[in-house]
Amino acid sequence: MQKICVAPSILSADFAAMGAAVEDLERCGADLIHCDVMDGTFVPKITFGSDMIAAVRRHTALPLDVHLMCVNPLVKAEDFIRAGADIVTVHAEACGKDLREVVRYIRTFGVRAGVAVSPDTPLRGIYHSLEEADMLLVMSVYPGRGGQKLIERTLAKAEEAKEFFAAHGLAKDIEMDGGITEENAAAVQAAGVNILVAGNTVFRSPDKAATIRALREARA
């Protein structure tokens, strides 16, 4: 079984105190820092760009898990890698037929490449790209805003990915983003997910360390 990791999403942090928020997450035992980049085109909301990633990088040694909800990710990926991203994840829907090329391009910089799929996107059409990517990100909510409830049918997509990777002898991370709570974390892990993205669940907790630990150990 892959190591279970918790990646709090800074989309739920106070943007005016981002450095302190990231430092606090590291103290509380986060495994990665998940950074949701939204461009106002692929999704309606705008969050932040590569300058924010560079600023966050100065406040933590944890891996920065940068999720690009952007059009033209092939053009934009390098800026985020130069800013300090350790993982750059692009959406299959934004890349279309160029998905495998984008994955290969990201990996040329020596960082990990992830492929994200929205709830209504089937995996079958991107199997060839998943073989080359380091990680699959299953969106368990519709991308673009925080605070949504987990869409339970997306657990089947994680299970499908787990079976596909096992059948092909591939050791890949499966990440899930959206609506993950202490109540459903065990089911998420049982579906094959080993990286749990949690925003509101962590940031609204009066004890972030305990919440991160509970998410990680839900299936223990």
Describe this structure in words.
By secondary structure, this protein is of the alpha/beta class. 36% of the residues lie in helices and 19% in strands. The protein has 10 helices and 8 strands. The chain has helices spanning 18-27, 50-57, 73-83, 92-95, 99-107, 127-130, 154-167, 185-190, 200-203, 208-216, and strands at residues 5-8, 33-38, 64-69, 87-91, 112-117, 135-139, 173-177, 195-198. An 8-stranded parallel β-sheet has the order 1-8-7-6-5-4-3-2. Strand 2, helix 2 and strand 3 form a beta-alpha-beta unit. Helix 2 (50-57) packs parallel to helix 3 (73-83). The longest helix is centred in the last third of the chain and has 14 residues, at 154-167. It is globular, with a radius of gyration of 16 Å. 44% of the residues are buried. The model has no long low-confidence stretch (mean pLDDT 96).
Primary descriptors:
about 220 residues, alpha/beta, globular
**Which residue ranges are poorly predicted, with pLDDT under 50 across at least 5 consecutive positions?**
none
Number of strands: 8
Strands in their spatial order, largest beta sheet: 1-8-7-6-5-4-3-2
Q: Per DSSP, what share of the residues sits in E-state strands of 2 or more residues? A: 15-25%
Q: Let me know the average pLDDT.
A: 96
Indicate the radius of gyration in whole angstroms. Answer: 16 Å
Which structural class do you get from the secondary structure elements? alpha/beta
The secondary-structure element order is EHEHEHEHHEHEHEHEHH
- Termini distance? 12 Å
